[in-house]
Task: structure prediction
Amino acid sequence: MIDLKVNLLQVLKSLPEIVKLVAVSKTHPVEDILELYDAGQRVFGENRVQEFIEKYPKLPTDIEWHFIGHLQTNKVKQIVPLVHTIHSVDSFKLLKEIDKEAAKVQRCISCLFEFHIADEDSKFGLNLNSASEFLSSPEYFALKNVQIIGVMGMATFTDDHNQVRIEFRKLRSIFDSLRQAFFVSDKRFKEISMGMTLDYPIAIEEGSTMVRIGSAIFGERTSIR
Ligand SMILES: *Cc1c(COP(=O)(O)O)cnc(C)c1O
Result:
């Protein structure tokens, strides 16, 4: 049997104080989440809408839920009343939909722009030009129920540490560019969400402020997703 609390404490011990841990609970049962909740963890991440909305009512309401997976616009409505932060904003259509649904329930959702930094076609994400264009548009200024708090990215799945480092560095530089150009007076734009079980030590060295860690805490997932 794996001891989830021991895993959690070990991960927490390895993180600098300013780095926020998102415990990625996808595929794992509510009992496991509760065990970590009892150990003090309050921030959890899920990547599937259906799974998330099934778990949500079975868990304490003071959990800070982060949605980290690809999100289709037609499913935004289901999660907006429940989530605190969405890491995976990979289109402006999606951001506008989040804003629209958040307005209906009078919430403001923290959002991160997801950037494509990996050397893999399958991953979703924006590029610096498209993000800059949108942030300069009147459409963006009209959004009142979303707050852009930073950027998110996933490195290539490879044991080439140097490549992973270069990709994280790229995300860091995108963050710096956007902050400089659009958020100098907005202190809430401060998050760089990068680093998972296998690569988070490198991500931290490259400036991560939020790590999304699943298997190092919950153990291996039986399904790949
Ligand atoms: C599953 C997942 C993680 C966590 O992955 P681990 O390797 O289990 O730590 C982080 N980010 C996203 C977007 C994920 O889907």
